[in-house]
Amino acid sequence: MNKLIVTGAILLQLVQPVLAQQKTDPQEINEKMQWFADAKLGIFIHWGIYAVNGIDESWSFHNRKISHADYMKQLKGFTAKNYDPQAWADLIKESGARYAVITTKHHDGVALWDTKFGKLDVAKATPAKRDLLTPFFAAIRKNGIKAGAYYSLLDWTNNNYPGFLKDSSRYDIKKDPARWQNFLDFNNGQMTEIATRFNPDLWWFDGDWERSADEWKATDVRKMLLSHNPKTIINGRLTGYGDYDTPEQNFPVVRPNFHWWELCMTINNNWGYQPQDTNWKTPYEVITIFADAISNGGNMLLDIGPKEDGTIPPQQVNVLKELGKWNKKHEAAIFSTIGGLPQGHFYGPTTMSKDSSAIYLFLAGKVSGQVMIKGLDNKIQSIKVVGNGTSLTHKIVGKISWSPVPGLVYIPVPENVQDEYMTVLEVKLDKAAKLYRGKGGLN
Ligand code: FHN
User: Fold this and answer.
1) Taking the model in full, what pTM does it have?
2) Which ligand 1 atom lies nearest to the CA of residue 58?
């Protein structure tokens, strides 16, 4: 629990409840979520037959950009012939990520493992001719990384699922509940297979929006997954019956209401491999977005889209490696920290040690001159540049002896200690951070 002390007019609720429907004992859930809270960075992998033509995953047929039959012709071109799961796991390790989440089945219904439920999987229906998940989970775990399974609840290809193409429906589940139950049995069968064979550390559901929690029988699904592994973490896209929230692509401007959250984000503009999409995020952009996420108490799940043969495009490799170098240098300020100062104290992202006796300041780009902290009611023991150890000086400005308002802390940052992407400063305090949040004057 955060020991941060806040004084002044504004009281901040630092620990918010998890998703609304969550009924688990708070102590139990805190323990279960600890590795996730400490992990900060995950790598998301969207790999499927859509990489053959390089088109939108599942959405291309759903939105009628291509016929379903033509979409499924991609099955014949999905070879996985250069798939090297250990190389993937090594790259993920190098990026600094502590967990990885792979699409076991997207909305197109094509399973990446040899499922006993239906014929639509890469082992039976593609030249890849094998289960691609077992070696992935093994390599990821060998590298000490937690392994997550993305699973789309909706399946636009399955004939027993009501939705198919945009603005069309196969049937009304109220009029034919047996057919809907048939689909739920199919999903449950696949989920049980995944739970039994891969035992995910994390379930990343998607596609819940087309049906209600009651229709998905979300509480039963949650119960079933936890009965296989009581420690598994479930994202919030099980119609709210999960453990954490998942804002997508758009960065939250204010700190999200949920205690645990994760920003999932593409590395260019698309989830899967699309050769025409060259709008790559730069390492600087990815790093600054990541810093913003952890500053607000969240994680980042950065997506990559391998080609159909299993190779990862060089631009994606480059971003992961650069991110990895920066993570390694600034490890102390990132992993196992907690969200930083509330807005208003520092113009930039911050994190804190768990006991809040150290504050980490993230400085974007090149700083010319000084940075400044407001409302910090502590004695500063030291200020150091993370990753190179240089000690920095500081000056307290505007402290009035009779006023409870702390002075401003000005820190000069010489050019020669600055990082190429983001420089991080560690400010060590005499005790847990005490923040003044008033409007100045006598209180
Ligand atoms: O429809 C999907 C989309 O294709 C992609 O998988 C993302 C990843 O978060 N989720 C869905 C949209 O929210």
Assistant:
1) 0.95
2) 4
Q: Is 287 helix (H, G, I), strand (E, B) or coil?
A: helix
Pocket test for ligand 1, best of 248, 299, 304 (most atoms within 8 A of CB): 248
Question: Is 14 a residue whose pLDDT tops 70?
Answer: no
Measured in angstroms, how far is the CA atom of residue 241 from the centroid of ligand 1? 18
- Count of alpha carbons within 13 angstroms of residue 403, beta-carbon side: 15
Q: Are residues 296 and 358 in the same domain?
A: no
Residue 280 has pLDDT above 50, yes or no: yes
Give the strand order in the sheet containing 395-397: 370-373, 408-412, 395-397
Q: Which of 308, 322, 309, 310 is nearest to 267 (CA)?
A: 322
Single out the residue in 282, 311, 329 at which a domain terminates.
329
111 lies in the same domain as 255: yes
* CA 168-171-173 angle, 5° bins: 125
Looking at the structure, tell me whether residues 344 and 322 fall in a common domain. no
Q: What does the H/E/C string look like for 103-153?
A: EEECCCCCECCCCCCCCCEHHHHCCCCCCCHHHHHHHHHHCCCEEEEEEEC
Which of the listed residues 278, 307, 329 is the one where a domain comes to its end?
A: 329
Looking at the CA of residue 248, tell me the nearest atom of ligand 1. Answer: 9
Range 58-73 burial, b when 16+ CB lie within 10 A, else e? bbbbbeeebebeebbe
Would the pLDDT of 199 be above 70? Answer: yes
In this structure, the residue with its CA closest to atom 4 of ligand 1 is 57
CA of 205 to the centre of ligand 1 (A): 10
Which residue range forms the structural domain that includes residue 382? 339-435
How would residue 345 be classed by pLDDT, with cut points 50, 70 and 90?
very high
| Alpha carbon separation from 175 to 170, 172, 216, 231, 285 (Å, rounded) | 12, 5, 16, 38, 50
Asked if residues 21 and 213 have their Cβ atoms less than 8 Å apart, the reply is yes
- Count up the domains in the chain and report the number: 2
SS3 274: coil
CA of 103 relative to ligand 1 center, distance in Å: 10
- Please list every protein residue whose CB sits less than 6 Å from any atom of ligand 1: 57, 206, 248, 264, 271
- Output the CA 268–ligand 1 centroid distance in Å: 14
Location of structure tokens 């954490």: 244
Q: Pick from 362, 347, 282, 288: which is nearest to 315 by CA?
A: 282
In the reported structure, the alpha carbon of residue 248 is separated from the centroid of ligand 1 by a whole-number distance in angstroms of: 8
C-alpha–C-alpha distance, residues 102 and 98, integer Å: 14
| Separation between Cα atoms, residue 265 and residue 278, nearest integer Å | 15
Nearest atom of ligand 1 to the alpha carbon of 46: 6
